[in-house]
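Example 9 (inverse folding). The structure is encoded as follows.
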């Protein structure tokens, strides 16, 4: 018998942590203690409340699929969904499964150490908790640890400043204010489009221009909603077997070799229909892998920028000339926002930011005075929250050190040398619409733990060899695509000093699930186990 305080500790109350808690506690009957540093459930959707925030997955597929009753009960009001709606849904889920009773909120886990004599995880929090458990489940989120560039003078700014992922719950009043925003990624483009009409003046500090396409958002009629619900079984089967898991069939037609009139016709239809992943993956099969096909998409979007933006000089600044090989963006009128008189675009590659001053942002060409400065500068993705906790495995090895040359795992859930630590969306997991991947991982981890319990196994960990092979596989797959050639958070390129390395399995959810099934069918041949407790 184990003398642990709990069978398992779960960190994180987002999609991942909450589902894991339900599986372990309600289905396996385990004692579970859970923590989140936020004041309530929601994860991403608790902390990101900036204006314009919207999912880029269609709502009907941005949810759990395991609970068929919930699928039928819950109706998304719009095609893409805003923070309020998603948080409402996650709150409903938490109520439905009485999730909160297992959580201690406003409690940051500060350390988690595997004790090799007891075979238990020893976890400490910033509230002074010291608890032990056989299993440690990390649902820390992969786009959760914020990145605020270390600009000189940041603390001297006398106006208000915010990172988009730490947005005040009471909102921010932009009316009549001089607002500046650094960053034009998914978050920045959403923020800029939504804030320009409210602000006195909006200054956009753009380092890299973006390819973005219309999102095509709008209300969902009762008829469409009923249709989607009636077809849910087939849709979720398709999603779980697909590549990006976004709820559409990925194209099998290559663009390479097709005349521009033909490719443009398809792109135009996608532009009208809306959706970033649809534009990249539903139009043609080779945009993410073939430079010619990629350029066809780029040229189409550049033409659109020229059509939309009135001032050719601004249009030129907004036009990217690199590959279309980052997470594909979609927006609600981003390029047209730059036709507004109260919006200024500053190209900080040509005119770098020197420092933040008490009054605003000083660039090489001059100072921009601001009342509010917003950092839409993204996240230390994937490993960011792991390296903030003092996580130590066998021999006291710190996870930070074991990931010095890039974060590693076996199948995105297990890390060699860290027994009984199970990661949800750990490094080199699938790059998809995330709730379906979270479900697949949580269910696999839960089955794995059940098997251990049934067999009386005390510890389990992936072998180093399996982890190395998986990392190699992920790199080989990534190298077949154009993604490593573009600088983005997908490869850790957005954080100065961070190793630019593969962080995702890019072959898709269908193949990923096959790998997990094969691992189970093999009797977990890539794991080592230790036997029953003394
Ligand atoms: P999270 O929701 O990030 O939850 C992690 C939790 O762990 C947080 O609550 C955090 O407080 C907690 N935590 C971390 N460290 C500690 C610690 N040391 N101690 C205690 N608690 C800790 N994905 C899509 O698929 N489609 C989309 O449309 C989409 N839109 C997005 C829009 C934005 C603005 C952002 C930021 C992300 C978006 N994502 C989207 C990704 C999104 O993060 C995932 O879809 C999903 O919400 C992740 O759930 P999670 O439970 O894995 O992590
Ligand atoms: P992203 O996609 O990482 O975008 C961050 C933006 O901030 C991007 O435009 C960056 O420019 C810019 N940035 C970062 N550091 C700096 C500095 N030092 N100076 C100027 N500009 C900077 O984060 P998002 O939050 O938009 O989106 C992340 C994911 O979360 C997204 O895919 C959704 O799934 C939700 P860069 O492009 O690096 O030149």
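The amino acid assigned to each position is listed next.
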């Amino acid at each position: 018998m184990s003398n642990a305080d709990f069978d398992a500790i779960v960190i994180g109350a987002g999609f991942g942590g909450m589902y894991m808690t339900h599986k372990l506690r309600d289905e396996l009957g385990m004692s579970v203690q859970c923590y989140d540093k936020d004041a309530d459930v929601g994860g991403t959707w608790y902390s990101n409340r900036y204006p314009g925030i919207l999912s880029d997955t269609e709502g009907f597929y941005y949810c759990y699929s395991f609970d068929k009753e919930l699928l039928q009960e819950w109706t998304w009001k719009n095609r893409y969904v805003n923070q309020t709606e998603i948080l409402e849904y996650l709150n409903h889920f938490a109520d439905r499964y009485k999730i909160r009773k297992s959580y201690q909120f406003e409690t940051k886990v500060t350390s988690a150490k595997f004790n090799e004599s007891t075979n238990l995880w020893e976890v400490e929090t910033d509230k002074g908790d010291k608890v032990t458990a056989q299993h440690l489940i990390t649902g820390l989120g992969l786009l959760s640890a914020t990145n605020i560039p270390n600009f000189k003078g940041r603390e001297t700014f006398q106006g208000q400043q915010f990172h988009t992922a730490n947005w005040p719950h009471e909102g921010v009043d932009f009316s009549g204010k001089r607002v500046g925003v650094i960053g034009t990624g998914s978050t920045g483009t959403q923020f800029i489009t939504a804030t320009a009409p409210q602000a006195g003046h909006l200054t956009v500090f753009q380092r890299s221009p973006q390819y973005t396409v219309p999102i095509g958002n709008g209300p969902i009629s009762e008829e469409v909603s009923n249709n989607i619900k009636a077809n849910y079984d087939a849709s979720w089967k398709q999603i779980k077997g697909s590549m990006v898991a976004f709820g559409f069939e990925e194209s099998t037609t290559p663009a390479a070799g097709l005349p521009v009139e033909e490719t443009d016709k398809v792109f135009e239809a996608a532009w009208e229909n809306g959706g970033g992943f649809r534009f990249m993956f539903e139009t043609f099969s080779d945009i993410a892998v073939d430079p010619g096909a990629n350029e066809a998409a780029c040229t189409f979007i550049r033409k659109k920028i020229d059509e939309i933006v009135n001032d050719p000089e601004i249009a030129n600044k907004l036009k990217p000339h690199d590959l279309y090989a980052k997470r594909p963006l979609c927006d609600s009128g981003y390029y047209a926002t730059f036709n507004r008189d109260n919006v200024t675009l500053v190209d900080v590659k040509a005119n770098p930011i020197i420092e933040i001053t008490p009054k605003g942002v000083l660039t090489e060409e001059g100072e921009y005075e601001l009342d509010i400065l917003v950092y839409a500068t993204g996240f230390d993705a994937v490993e960011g929250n792991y390296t903030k906790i003092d996580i130590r495995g066998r021999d006291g090895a710190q996870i930070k050190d074991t990931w010095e040359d890039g974060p590693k795992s076996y199948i995105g859930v297990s890390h060699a040398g860290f027994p009984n630590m199970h990661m949800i969306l750990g490094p080199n997991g699938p790059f998809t619409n995330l709730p379906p991947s979270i479900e697949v991982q949580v269910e696999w981890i839960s089955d794995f733990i059940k098997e251990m319990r049934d067999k009386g196994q005390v510890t389990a960990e992936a072998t180093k060899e399996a982890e190395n092979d998986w990392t190699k596989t992920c790199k080989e797959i990534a190298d077949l695509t154009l993604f490593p050639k573009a600088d983005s958070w997908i490869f850790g390129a957005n954080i100065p000093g961070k190793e630019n390395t593969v962080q995702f399995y890019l072959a898709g959810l269908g193949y990923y699930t096959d790998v997990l099934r094969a691992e189970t069918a093999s009797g977990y041949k890539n794991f080592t186990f230790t036997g029953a407790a003394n």
